[in-house]
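The data are set out underneath:

___
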Amino acid sequence: MQIAKNYLYNVIYQVFIIIVPLLTIPYLSRILGPSGIGINSYTNSIVQYFVLFGSIGVGLYGNRQIAFVRDNQVKMSKVFYEIFILRLLTICLAYLLFVAFLTINGQYHAYYLSQSIAIVAAAFDISWFFMGIENFKVIVLRNFIVKLLALFSIFLFVKSYNDLNIYILITVLSTLIGNLTFFPSLHRYLVKVNYRELRPIKHLKQSLVMFIPQIAVQIYWVLNKTMLGSLDSVRSSGFFDQSDKIVKLVLAIATATGTVMLPRVANAFAHREYSKIKEYMYTGFSFVSAISIPMMFGLIAITPKFVPLFFTSQFSDVIPVLMIESIAIIFIAWSNAIGTQYLLPTNQNKSYTVSVIIGAIVNLMLNIPLIIYLGTVGASIATVISEMSVTVYQLFIIHKQLNLHTLFSDSSKYLIAGLVMFLIVFKISLLTPTSWIFILLEITVGIIIYVVLLIFLKAEIINKLKFIMHK
């Protein structure tokens, strides 16, 4: 039951930090236009490289290490301070490198300076600690208030294209303030430590091990927008960014189990409870498949209507991009389940690293020709193929550790139900007018069809959900 509660909290958290900008997109699309959205997307993608460098993999590493020692308050306190100090040092170095970057890049100077607050905010992001102790409630509540204030501020202060910098400042400052609000809650969990005994540098090597795959992940999440801005135009970067936001919203629900299960599996691994680890993996993978497959099919079905209503007709180029990129949802969900729920918490860092490096290399190699010849559509195709390559490699790695037949036992049922749902919803979409009422109708019909088919096909996930609800 605790896992279910943490999953719901994490879903709320992941969806909320994405849904706030999504709520403002229809407004900002009209106020800032494709160029303003593109400049924000492009400059943010550059700054995210410095955030990544300064963070050096602390998010996942800190989450796991806290989970390992959370039963010992003294050890947990020491580990927290060591990792926090290490991150402060690396963020300072990252900001110095950013200043050096600004001296050789004159374009969008003011926007870059505003975006750089995100680097400072990363230094105070200690959400990894609360995830490690499986306290997702504090993360959700504190971020909810801050993001809500940011939402109101956007509608209050962003009135024209000239307010682009104000929009950027509101976004990054809300992140910084949200991170700072975590600190008052720390005293409940930590005890005083002898600061002379702290050895933050000892965590550097293992953080770097987890930093390498995060670099690779960042490459095929952010490099698409950077390369589109460089090889095509900032407008193209903005179109892809809009598609990416929708896909990430869907993925926040599908991959929330990864963040929840990582500390749980890591703790089981520390206690050598290997049978429990396999049980967690089989259940988690089945659940991820059950929700990501209909989300993929459903998003493809409603995209032609959704995009012009949500983004305005100026963003019609987003339609084919979003329809193609939606296919990546299932591969990302699977690789997240294998990587975050199994490989990382069981200390198989090398295998996880190799998998995402393969994805980054595939993405980079495909991006150059596909973006040049196909633009945003090419970037979305490269994303799907690179995510598929990550999943295939991870499955190869675990095929001797886990029973793949058990892992995919009900996947065919999810695919059949999802495909039937797609055909019916897409047909309804073709026969009905473009309006929010009919989109909501299509989503409702799709959910009903999918659930009914799963019951008819006797999918095991239905029985597990019934069991959880009656506990």
Q: What stands out?
A: Residues 86 and 255 are 28 Å apart (CA to CA). The chain has 20 helices and no strands. Residues 467-471 have pLDDT under 50 and may be disordered. The chain has one domain: 2-409.
